[in-house]
Write a structure and sequence with these properties.
This protein is an alpha/beta fold. Helices cover about 30% and strands about 20% of the residues. The chain has 7 helices and 9 strands, in the order βαβαβαββαβαβααββ. The protein has helices at about 20-30, 50-55, 70-80, 110-120, 135-140, 170-175, 190-200; strands at about 5-15, 40-45, 65, 90-95, 100, 125-130, 155-170, 205, 210. The protein has a 7-stranded mixed sheet, sandwiched between helices. The chain has a two-stranded antiparallel sheet with strand order 5-9. Helix 2 links the parallel strand 2 and strand 3. The longest helix is centred in the first third of the chain and has 15 residues, at about 20-30. The radius of gyration is 17 Å and the shape is globular. The chain starts with 6 loop residues before the first strand and ends in a 25-residue tail after the last strand. The mean pLDDT is about 90.
């Protein structure tokens, strides 16, 4: 099976940030190559120039457009399950301020093969962080259908893969209907981490060759926050 038949890469572009869109998408084509790049792109209130550029590059069934400022996770659901549902074994996510910066090692192993190797013993991979609970999140967790008795009140924090880039088994995402319909813009990554804990899914660290939510210098998690600043999922 070709790598393009194993991975669906989903990218969300937002607003008037053509330099981020170009950095992200060009890094994918340069690193993976057009012959192995199975990509779909969500356009969230982008400029006309970015929309035209993407629509000229990809066929219509691979472009998902919202002219309103929709939230991140409703667009993610469209990319995963909407007009053209993902059917590959693995689903990969990129925010537009994440990109690839991978230099072939001496073994000359392509980057997607590294990801595939990491997924052999994993259900979700990404750059792992910890974050404390806020608001009513601990009680909210106990009310979810996927809660399996690991009491969040006995812990101080989530363990999760930060949401700017991650890869998951498509079967797992579909089994738990992630991202959930009620999920808006913030907190989907931490709750996915909690789902992994509750259901004993294999959440593992991997960020080789990926600059995640990166600033101009490529520093991880240093990109300026843009768009909505909603309360985290389950906070209220």
């Amino acid at each position: 099976m070709r790598l393009r038949d194993k991975f669906t890469i989903c990218v969300l572009l937002y607003g008037d940030f053509p330099e981020l869109a170009a950095r992200c998408l060009s890094s994918l084509t340069d690193t993976i190559g057009p012959e192995e790049l199975n990509i779909r792109v969500g356009l969230n209130k982008v400029t006309d120039s970015v929309r035209q550029w993407v629509c000229d590059w990809l066929p219509p069934e691979r472009v998902f457009i919202s002219n309103d400022d929709t939230r991140k996770y409703p667009m993610m659901r469209r990319l995963f399950y909407g007009e053209n549902p993902v059917t590959t074994p693995y689903t990969m996510w990129f925010d537009d301020d994440s990109y690839l910066d991978y230099k072939l090692p001496e073994s000359r192993l392509p980057w997607l093969q590294l990801v595939e190797q990491a997924m052999v013993a994993s259900d979700i991979i990404g750059s792992i962080y910890k974050m404390g609970f806020s608001g009513n999140q601990q009680e909210f967790i106990k009310q979810q259908s996927w809660y399996d008795g690991k009491d969040p009140f006995e812990r101080k924090s989530f363990r999760f893969a930060t949401g700017g880039w991650w890869t998951g088994r498509t079967e797992v995402l579909r089994r738990f209907d992630y991202p959930w319909p009620g999920l808006g813009h913030n907190g989907g990554d931490v709750m996915l981490g909690e789902l992994c804990l509750q259901q004993e899914l294999r959440l593992r660290h991997f960020n080789q060759g990926v600059r995640i939510n990166a600033d101009a210098a490529g520093k991880e998690s240093a990109s300026k926050r843009r768009g909505r600043n909603d309360r985290p999922y389950g906070h209220a």
